[in-house]
Amino acid sequence: MTIITVRAARPEDREQIIEVEAKSTPNLRYVPQVFAEFIAHPRGEFSVAEVDGELAACAKFTVLPDNSAWLETLRVTPARQGLGVGKRLYEHFFAIARRQGISTMRMYTGVNNVVSKGLAERFGFQPAATFFGAWQATDAALASASAAPFQPVTDPDSAAALLMPHSAAWNGFLVMNRTFYTLTPVLCTYLCRRGQVYAESTSGSVAVLGARFMPEQALHMGLFAGDVGACLHFAQQKANQIGAPRLSCLFPTTSPQIRQDLDDGGFQMEPSAFVVMERSGLS
Ligand SMILES: CC(C)(COP(=O)(O)OP(=O)(O)OC[C@H]1O[C@@H](n2cnc3c(N)ncnc32)[C@H](O)[C@@H]1OP(=O)(O)O)[C@@H](O)C(=O)NCCC(=O)NCCS
């Protein structure tokens, strides 16, 4: 009989977790960069599963500013897939949510990842939105011309007043590092305190730029509106300034205008879309 156990990750699990990630998602690897932050988890948990005493999987339960849970980095090493490890980790997520009084959980996956999506559906998650990804290499030439003077927005109420009207166009989410944050006044305060909200008053433009983690890899455009050309130009300048090699933007499939804007700005589209899945009403 196979014995599966789940526990919180420990510092000494680092190398084995990195190996699990390397084998299960060879094209999406970031545990080495986020391990220290994940293990420090003020409210959530970085968890591992062992199969017959051998570390075989990891998963992260993160509490977002709106007090929802973000389920991420679920990885089961290929040799141990299909044994029920993923289901055990989901049960663990529900137990943490109960303990923490969290009523909504979300996760994302690629629209073609039938196992990951099916697993979430098995636990009552339903699609909340689908997003495309787009990116552009940082280019000093694109950043060089004189730019509209964007300023950081430091007052949370002003940030909410600038950002909330764009909620529908962005399907209620703002994405950085593939983390889907619900666009709420609480999030606006959080972004404002992190210095990630920028505005340019003459053209009435606003942009959310930054990173949840790994700022050295990409500058994420969580939202932009107003004079889009000015927003993209400012994002290029910012990326050049901090030395991030690319700009990244996830935007809703329901907003053809945003796609057009990014196409016009020379962005490239990622090959397939992402779906954010949601389970709410937990007691
Ligand atoms: C996705 C993943 C975490 C699932 O873990 P796992 O341990 O193999 O999954 P389990 O054996 O616990 O659960 C399998 C469940 O997935 C679902 N599932 C499996 N194959 C499916 C399919 N073809 N269609 C729909 N649902 C499917 C079912 O609900 C199934 O449970 P059931 O057979 O009792 O109904 C694992 O395959 C993995 O690590 N994949 C690579 C990384 C990845 O894609 N991670 C997801 C984050 S984007």
Query: What's the number of extended β-strand segments?
Result: 15
CATH class value of the largest domain: Alpha Beta
By oligomeric state, this entry counts as single chain
Number of helices: 9
Mean of the pLDDT scores? 96
Task: Spell out the CATH superfamily of the largest domain.
Answer: Gcn5-related N-acetyltransferase (GNAT)
User: In angstroms, what is the radius of gyration?
Assistant: 19 Å
Report on the biggest sheet. Answer: 13 strands, mixed
Give the ligands present: coenzyme A
Textual characterization of the structure:
The protein is of the alpha+beta class. The chain folds into 2 domains: 4-102, Aminopeptidase, CATH 3.40.630.30; 132-275, Gcn5-related N-acetyltransferase (GNAT) (Aminopeptidase), CATH 3.40.630. The protein contains 9 helices and 15 strands. Strands 1, 2, 3, 4, 5, 6, 7, 10, 11, 12, 13, 14 and 15 form a 13-stranded mixed β-sheet that branches. A two-stranded antiparallel sheet has the order 8-9. α6 (156-163) crosses α7 (185-193). The mean pLDDT is 96. The chain binds coenzyme A. Residues 24-25, 74-76, 81-87, 109, 113-116, 118-119, 122 line the site of coenzyme A.
